[in-house]
Amino acid sequence: MPGRFPLAGLLRLRRAQQDQAASTLAAANERFREAADARTAARRTLDDPQAEVTDAAMLSAIAAARASTRGMLEELGAVAATRRADMEAAQAGYNAARRSALGLEKLEGSHAEREHAEELRAEQIVLDEIATRRPGNTPGRDTEPTGGAR
Fold this sequence. Notes:
By secondary structure, the chain is mainly alpha-helical. Helix content is about 80%, strand content about 0%. It has helices at about 10-45, 55-135.
């Protein structure tokens, strides 16, 4: 039976932290995409050709709508910048969690290799022992078959 990796509990914790960081990163990426999509939609609204102006009231309404859209674009730009910063922080958190888990994973791999080498060595010792105990391989005995005339 192979020996248990002594840091297995810590490795499980690091992997759980990595999974949580990956989840946080995915959510931050989604929020950033939503903000970018809203900004793109607002920009398209601002760039769309307007209906034909027929009177001063319509012209005032169009001007107010465009001013409102410009203000919304500025706000969406600020939201997108904040969400980009959140996304970058989440990426840094994920990278740190991954580095923590990676070091332990390498140690676990080395441990598994040592355990496997030890198992092979023990098996070879048993095989060598069996080979030395076979009839005809006993030390001090003649290995030539006996029988017949000498």
